[in-house]
Amino acid sequence: MIKFGTRSINQFMQQQKDLFGHYKQPKIKEDSYVTGLKLANSLKGSELVPFIPINGRQVNFYYCGPTVYSNSHLGHARTYLGIDVIRRTLRDYFNYDLLSVMNITDIDDKIINGAKQAKQDFLEFTKVWEKDFFTAMEALNIELPDVITRVSDYVPEIVTFIEKIIANGYAYDSNGSVYFDVQKYVSDGHTYPKMRPEMNVELLQEGEGESQVNKQQEKRSANDFALWKASKPEEPKWPSPWGEGRPGWHIECSVMASAILGNPIDLHAGGIDLIFPHHDNSLAQAEACFNCDQWINYFIHLGHLNIADRKMSKSLKNFLTIDEVLKRYTARQIRLNFAIHQYDAVMNYSEEQVEQAISKDKAYQEFFQNTKIYLRESSVIGPQKWTQNDFQINYLLRNTKEIIHAALLKNFDFPTVIDAIDKLINQVNVQIANKTVRPPLLQSVVQYVNFILGLMGLNYQNQNNTSTDIQQIMAEVCSIRDQVKLAARKGDFDAISTIVSQKQFQYEKNLSNGIVDCINHFQQQVLVASQGKNKQELFTLCDKLRDEQLFELGIKIEDKDKQQASIWKQYDPKELKLEREQQLKLIQQKELIKKKEEEKKKQEELEKLEKAKIHPKDMFLSQIDKYSEFDEKGIPIKDKDGNELSKKQKKVVQDLWEKQNKIHNQYLESLKKQQQ
């Protein structure tokens, strides 16, 4: 049996179980809404436990918002994209009646210091960075919570909350500040800390902030933490029974969550870095105020984000803001990059992984574009009797639904969800290419894939408003362009003049005027080129219409072989341009790698040549730090101390000499050939 010191593995597991023995799993009641969902509950040591809301389908959900004092960065994206996906899944897939609350911390030591440096009022300072945060969230398509709370709006409620904790005997005032009495709390039978079993005084004091440095003498114990901080003269302050001051960090969430959602609360979320002391202290404060054993029923935490295997930090120069990343990648690509990682696991952000997300995003775009074309060109008036291919697609669709349902029940396992969607799309793509799937069935597949990707905030179908007008004109544009190319190959310039003179396109309601301008201008230029019988110019104009003019409008034309008509696809113009930039960057990176490999190979060849120039008799003579005597061929026979080389050592130097003799002779032969 494996031993842990003097403990058996069974004893160790029992101790771990006892550490979280305080947790009380909500019971299923008559009106309970049970879906089978299980969450990795930090109150249970991240064990998967059944999710049972307090009141039927209603779910009260609180999650920690940002402390607004600097740019929104990828760490924020990791947390709030994960929470956004969880919210969408709870609401749209599991059909819970969700009420979500997020706070804004606008009172904090870092904010006060930042405002001082900026020479601004602290609230003016926070509004700048709060705007930056919400702008970044909107750009990433992260939905707003139902309720937003700011600490500065809840100071009176915080004071009242602290008074209740004092009245219950779990806090004391000292020199104008108020501290939570951990020893009294624990001695009365409460558990602290609940989610991190071991106490960490260093982390506890780090969570207190700079303002509490050198204030240990005010506490009864080093483990006690501030609920209310006496303000310094230059700091923001509010009145309280203990003197002017401001709230401690941990009390803020306890108060704001309770003010909106009450006690108890179904679900609480935040980054794993907040688990201790912030979340453990928030739990203790609320349970001390309400004199209850369990304020939160489910606590979930989003995993750490590393940048290229290292913690993101300004000092390491790997700090990435959301704004910086959005200049290089689309919101969908960023969302996909996070979605392919389990929300509560450690995630490593790297350029290589982003490339995978870009590739996956491209595959999804092409799936929806190709199915759109297939459905556009298909008709339910034709044969609809299912073939074996249709039965296979239907089986795959149903099987995919079962796999995804099981994955979502298991703590929102989106990596498995994405893998299942990829397999479904790959199979359907084959049937589309072979034109062997019935349109109604394909429509069902498209709707399901769109719904599941929508849980991840990925929107492909509604990104472009492809109106009937645009469908009609683009069909004509492709037809005219195809006819011009075909006639140009034959040298039939009269036919080209007829083709482009038949119709002048007009602006119509809901029609893109840019497309009308493009095709009219194209026809005019083609007419001139055909009259001049300039075949090459005609092909150039066709390429320019495809690669520049329509591309700028978000229209991509794909040419098929000479026997097939070209097809068109509509994208967001900004995303299409960014895609081209990403492809160009990838090409440049490959060329750079190729160049470096060629330079390395060239250097190796030069080094090989220089080595070949050395006569075998001379190769060891310079190694006087190893050898002291050599034979007539220059082969060492004694080491540096004058001792004769062993049989094994002699064999090694003999082999090296023979190898050098061989390459030197080859070098001499090459010189002779060059001279001849």
Automatic annotation (TrEMBL):
<feature type="coiled-coil region">
    <location>
        <begin position="579"/>
        <end position="615"/>
    </location>
</feature>
<dbReference type="GO" id="GO:0005524">
    <property type="term" value="F:ATP binding"/>
</dbReference>
<keyword id="KW-0175">Coiled coil</keyword>
<keyword id="KW-0862">Zinc</keyword>
<keyword id="KW-0547">Nucleotide-binding</keyword>
<dbReference type="Pfam" id="PF01406">
    <property type="entry name" value="tRNA-synt_1e"/>
</dbReference>
<keyword id="KW-0479">Metal-binding</keyword>
<keyword id="KW-0436">Ligase</keyword>
<dbReference type="InterPro" id="IPR032678">
    <property type="entry name" value="tRNA-synt_1_cat_dom"/>
</dbReference>
<dbReference type="GO" id="GO:0006423">
    <property type="term" value="P:cysteinyl-tRNA aminoacylation"/>
</dbReference>
<dbReference type="InterPro" id="IPR015803">
    <property type="entry name" value="Cys-tRNA-ligase"/>
</dbReference>
<keyword id="KW-0030">Aminoacyl-tRNA synthetase</keyword>
<keyword id="KW-0067">ATP-binding</keyword>
<protein>
    <recommendedName>
        <fullName>cysteine--tRNA ligase</fullName>
        <ecNumber>6.1.1.16</ecNumber>
    </recommendedName>
</protein>
<dbReference type="GO" id="GO:0004817">
    <property type="term" value="F:cysteine-tRNA ligase activity"/>
</dbReference>
<dbReference type="InterPro" id="IPR024909">
    <property type="entry name" value="Cys-tRNA/MSH_ligase"/>
</dbReference>
<feature type="domain" description="tRNA synthetases class I catalytic">
    <location>
        <begin position="53"/>
        <end position="358"/>
    </location>
</feature>
<dbReference type="GO" id="GO:0005737">
    <property type="term" value="C:cytoplasm"/>
</dbReference>
<keyword id="KW-0648">Protein biosynthesis</keyword>
<dbReference type="GO" id="GO:0046872">
    <property type="term" value="F:metal ion binding"/>
</dbReference>
